[in-house]
Amino acid sequence: MSSGYLLYWGADNTASATTMEEVDEILDRVSAAGPNMVDLTADGNDDAGLQIGVGHPHRAVVLIFDEDGGYIWQPDVPEWKESIEFSYGGQPAVYSPARTRITPVAARRAVGEYLRTGALPADMRVDPEN
């Protein structure tokens, strides 16, 4: 279990958290501002961090940065009808329907499980190629 988390978003926003509940509170605030990508690391370990796209009402993005990482998706969730734009570092970043095959609730669950255990929930997959 981690002793702390660092979150980065927008042009120069940062926050730290010591619990997953605090991480969720920060993600809620960022999400309220609209679609944004958030970089998140545990204990400042940038090699094992992740990105989560929050703020879209129906879809999210989760990208894991470890050696087995990639975009996370749910097999039972169809591709979205179009690409979705998230703000990343204050700049637009467009994610294809294949990369947004995860709901916001499932994305938060995936992030929490990954940060706590290093693994994903059993009902999710990693696509290192997409």
Question: Mind explaining what this structure looks like?
Answer:
By secondary structure, this protein is of the alpha+beta class. It has helices spanning 20-32, 104-117, and strands spanning 5-9, 13-17, 36-42, 50-54, 61-64, 71-73, 84-88, 91-95, 125-127. A hairpin with a 2-residue loop joins strand 7 (84-88) and strand 8. The N and C termini lie far apart (29 Å).
Strand order of the largest sheet: 2-1-3-4-5
Specify Rg, calculated over alpha carbons.
13 Å
Report the major sheet. Answer: 5 strands, antiparallel
Give the domain tally.
1
Provide a concise account of the structure shown.
By secondary structure, the chain is α+β, with helices and mostly antiparallel strands.
What descriptive keywords fit this protein?
130 residues, alpha+beta, two-stranded antiparallel sheet, 2 helices, globular
SSE diagram, text form:
Layout: E1 5-9, E2 13-17, H1 20-32, E3 36-42, E4 50-54, E5 61-64, E6 71-73, E7 84-88, E8 91-95, H2 104-117, E9 125-127
Antiparallel strand pairs: 1-2, 1-3, 3-4, 4-5, 6-9, 7-8
